[in-house]
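Quarterly update from the structural biology core.
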Amino acid sequence: MTHPKPLAISMGDAAGIGPEIIVKAYARAAAGGCVVYGCAEVLARAAARLAERDGCARAVVARIDGPEDTAALPPGVIPVVQAAGVEAADLREVALGQVDARAGAAAHASIVAATQAALRGEVAGLVTAPIHKEALHAAGVPFPGHTELLQHLCGGAPVRMMLANDELRTVLVTIHLSVRRALEAITEAAVLQTLRITHAAARAWGTSAPRIAVAGLNPHAGEGGLFGDEELRILAPAIARARAEGIDASGPYAPDTVFMRARNTPTHPGAFDVVVAMLHDHALIPVKYLGLEQGVNITLGLPFVRTSPDHGTAFDIAGRGVADEASLCSAIAMARRLTGR
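Predicted structure, tokenized:
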């Protein structure tokens, strides 16, 4: 029987909780069928800290040459492909919980290696552990986050960020920009492109006719122009063009109520399958409020599935053994679902 391709997990920032939650995900058997790209020694140190803290057996970390080697490993072993450019010696002096250019460089190299494996078809998809934007910047990486970096590595095709849990899905028109710059980036073309990408992704995941709500930018969606005219000048024309293409987009709706309408629970079937929002915090706050442990970040528009936990590096608790791996496990489960594994 052919062994299925594994999912790749990029290590994240070595000074944060990424290595710890990866080890915990394997301990929960939630990461079976995955291969880590990063530094085997960093993962082994995280496993040793957890074993010492909990008084349990230390997880076994195995350095392998490529994802095809995972099939020969016993269950529970954590397989790690040493990413090109990542040297264990560079990371031994990295202090947990502190911004370090060496950790930023290693995190970048891990993402690059895992992405290249996905593009070559060696892995089924990519799950990314948290990175620290300051560490990336200190390492000279000219991208503010995963989404922009992955877009660059995949040839620059338009992508969008989606945050999702079992109750709500939101997609962003703008991501890591100041509010002032984001306002300039909200154009009819950008909104229409977001609707197209969202529609195509939802169809690819099995929703034949996705219902897309568009959240307004201004209070009360502009109140007919009283509180801003972006809804009239930009959003409404983009929605009309999308509908003319057969996309079930509607709005713009007041951003303070549309997320409640879209929330899907056993007692409240959501009125929409996904909400497109204009600004980073407009889209992320509702999903994160429902629970960080369930939220998953998904990049739409890439040539492969990419998910990540809905939290950061948590430098304040790094190395203490108390980080919650639930969101990483949710990201792995979502990647499996989206890749049909």
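The mean pLDDT is 93.
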